[in-house]
Amino acid sequence: MRFIVYIFIIFAFINYAYAANEPNAAVQKISLAVDHAPPYSQINQNGEVSGAIVDIFREMKKQLPFKLELVGCPFSRCVRMLEQGEVNAMGGLILTPMRQQVMQFVTPPYMVLTSSFVFYAREDSQLQINNYDDLYGKKIAIMRGAVHFKRFDEDDELTKIAVLTESTAINLLLKGRADLVIAVEDTADHAMSVLNQPAKKLVKMQYRFNDTIYGYLALSKQFSVTPLAQRVDALMKTMAATGQLNTLIAPYELPPLNEQALSF
């Protein structure tokens, strides 16, 4: 009986070793979470996913052996899935110390925006936001899980209404259930046109917070320690250094990476 068990173990080991040497055995899967955030990424009515980070990974597939699984999800759910290791990667994330504890950021960033965080109100609201203090007492729609600027994000005295998508935030504003929506100025107008939102009914407030915004690719902690993840990290750096990243992000109205970003 013991002899039969030994034979079974040896047979199983041989099968495993044979499978590991098969060409398809080396092909792993990378699951990429993508939220609907034009112009960075989009999910159309048919569920088809596109965007700058998708194009970057499709280019990586030409050099690395992996299958790409695109997972469309609302922003906050995408972030949660990445934190919990349910997906391997997500793009367009702002680096914060808190996020660094639960995910691994790939440098350099692939998105650099020298822009402002602005606040939109309904044109007929007659609201005046001239400085930060004017935000108090106003209901501000934000995307759940998003990062803005430090003072705003850490201010518990502000009334923030967290929603799943940018589209929902704008709808709350138009229906009078929110007074303001916060957005990145460089991309908000474009995003609203893609989202079929009536931008003409909205007005930007005078107060804004100027900042340089960096958007990174981030990997789950579980995936980041794998050899494939390390190759993804190295290839991202190569694509940035050769200018290939700039070519891939150009169709999405994103500026080329500057020297400061490349030094990260």
Describe the structure.
The strands form two sheets. The protein has an eight-stranded mixed beta sheet, with helices on both faces. Strands 2-3 form a two-stranded antiparallel ribbon. The chain is built from eleven helices and ten strands. The chain has two domains: 2-112 and 213-262, Periplasmic binding protein-like II (D-Maltodextrin-Binding Protein, domain 2, 3-Layer(aba) Sandwich); 114-211, Periplasmic binding protein-like II (D-Maltodextrin-Binding Protein, domain 2). The N and C termini lie far apart (61 Å). With 264 residues, it is α/β, with parallel strands linked by helices. The longest helix is centred in the N-terminal third of the chain and has 19 residues, at 2-20. It has helices at residues 2-20, 52-60, 75-83, 97-100, 150-154, 166-174, 185-194, 221-224, 227-242, 244-249, 259-262; strands spanning 28-34, 41-43, 49-51, 66-72, 89-93, 103-122, 139-143, 159-163, 180-184, 202-220.
Total count of strands:
10
Q: Class of the largest domain, according to the CATH hierarchy?
A: Alpha Beta
**Which percent range fits the helix content?**
25-40%
Radius of gyration: 22 Å
DSSP strand (E) fraction?
A: 25-35%
Largest sheet: 8 strands, mixed
Give the overall silhouette.
Answer: elongated
State the CATH topology of the largest domain: D-Maltodextrin-Binding Protein, domain 2
Q: Residue ranges: pLDDT <50 for 5 or more in a row?
A: 1-25
Query: Oligomerization state of this entry?
Result: single chain
Q: What's the layout of helices and strands?
A:
Layout: H1 2-20, E1 28-34, E2 41-43, E3 49-51, H2 52-60, E4 66-72, H3 75-83, E5 89-93, H4 97-100, E6 103-122, E7 139-143, H5 150-154, E8 159-163, H6 166-174, E9 180-184, H7 185-194, E10 202-220, H8 221-224, H9 227-242, H10 244-249, H11 259-262
